[in-house]
Every structure is written in structure tokens, then in C-alpha cells.
Amino acid sequence: MKKVVYASMLAVGAFLSFGAQAVTICDAAKLGGKSGAGVAPASGTAGTNFMVRAITPNCSANVNMDGQDGTSGAWFAVGAASVKGANTFAGHTNGGAVSPSAKCAVPGGCTLGEATTAMGVANTAAQNAGGTGTGTGTGT
Questions:
Q1: What backbone phi and psi angles, to 5 degrees, belong to 81?
Q2: Which residues are CB-neighbours of 114 under 8 A, at least 6 positions away?
Q3: What rounded mean pLDDT belongs to the chain?
């Protein structure tokens, strides 16, 4: 499942960057145990959105993922967690690699709220990175 979370975050991170509004891209509860289309982050406005072209995210059945444009669309940050995993993952396009962020409160029971928290960690790291960050968290 880690590979699915990493792949999902990398795919979104490759096309996106953060702004002021966070969006739940993948909500495992709404997917009802099946893979399916996610919610596309805002796009199209240079200087507001990191992503200029819209994408259609495809979410794995057990993945929760949030994303957010950074200041003036300068970066995009993501946080994700598998509902069957033990860690959250965070990453951003301002020089930060996707990496474990924090352990979930209940191993094998990660929540959307924990993915949202990981996204906040990534967004803060992106703000402080200046394009030179190497990661976002301390979990293993």
C-alpha cells in the first residue's frame, strides 16, 4: 500500500502546487472500498494556482489525500495516508520529497484528518524551504 500512497502523491505533486484553499483529493470513506475518481485541485490561474492545467486524479480504494496551493501558487503540498497503514506521508513541490510524516494514532486505522495534518506539515515545510527542502516529517 505504501507504493500506492507514494505513487498517488508523486503524481499529484508532479502536476500541482499549494495555494490558500485545501482540497480533499481522495476520501477513502466516500470511495466505499473501491478505486475511483478523486477531486481535482483548483487550476488555471497563474499566480494563484500551481497547476495551470486541470487533472483528473484517480484514487486507490484505501487512500486519503489532501492538497493545497502555496502562496500565489508557488508550490503544491500534499498529505496522504492509507486507511490500512501506520504512517502519514507528506510532500511538496518546493524542493521537498515525499516522506513519512507522522505515525497514525491507530496503526492500520489512519484517518482523513491525519492526512490533512500531514498536508499542513508539508505546506509549512514548503513555506520554509525556499526550494531546498529535503523532506517533511519524522515518522517511520
A1: -160, 140
A2: 64, 81, 88, 102, 104, 105
A3: 83
Q: How far is residue 87's CA from residue 103's CA, in Å, rounded to a whole number?
A: 4
Q: What is the pLDDT of residues 23-72, one digit of tens each?
A: 999 999 999 989 999 999 999 888 889 999 999 999 999 999 999 999 99
3-state secondary structure 56-75: CCEECCCEEEEEEECHHHCC
State the pTM of this model. Answer: 0.76
Handedness of CA 8, 12, 17, 21 (dihedral sign): negative
Contacts of 107 (CB under 8 A, 6+ apart): 85, 86
Q: Cβ distance 110 to 88 under 8 Å?
A: yes
Q: Interior CA angle at 90 toward 118 and 16, to 5°?
A: 110
Between the alpha carbon of residue 28 and those of residues 86, 97, 129, the distances in Å are 15, 24, 30
SS3 80: strand
Cβ atoms < 10 Å from Cβ of 42? 19
